[in-house]
Design goal:
single chain, about 130 residues, mainly beta, Jelly Rolls, six-stranded antiparallel sheet, five-stranded antiparallel sheet, 13 strands, about 60% strand
Length: about 130
């Protein structure tokens, strides 16, 4: 499945009742991620925080933290994403959009992965 500039990705997930965190990853492979989108209910030092980052050649860049946290354990949520020349724009379940820079600088990504304590309900690219 590829995701390229100008396309919209919609993911419907349902975090488990005891979910500590889950992640949505878009990139080229597990060592090169344009976007690591990681809602954290209670993970490490983060509580009700969305952490975003990129991974290049297996090395993480600086984390970006988002305080708006419209996720609830046990409830389905829709996360959208758009790509553009300036960056990636994750859309949260409450409609807010976050600007995350396209640190890898590419216009097409072929790797997509969801990890953690959330069930995938659906995925759509248009």
């Amino acid at each position: 499945m590829s995701f390229k500039e100008g396309k919209e990705l919609k993911v419907r997930v349902k975090p488990s009742d005891c979910c500590s965190n889950f992640s949505i990853n878009i990139g080229h492979d597990p060592d090169n991620l344009a976007l690591h989108f990681n809602p954290r209910f209670d993970f490490g030092h983060d509580v009700n925080t969305i952490v975003m980052n990129s991974l290049s050649g297996g090395s993480w860049a600086d984390e970006q933290h988002e305080g708006n946290f419209p996720f609830t354990r046990g409830e389905e949520a829709k996360v959208g994403g758009f790509t553009g020349p300036a960056g990636l724009l994750p859309e949260l379940p409450d409609g807010c959009m976050i600007n995350f820079p396209n640190r890898l600088g590419d216009v097409k990504y072929d790797y997509f992965d969801i990890r953690g304590e959330a069930k995938v309900i659906g995925i759509k690219i248009k």
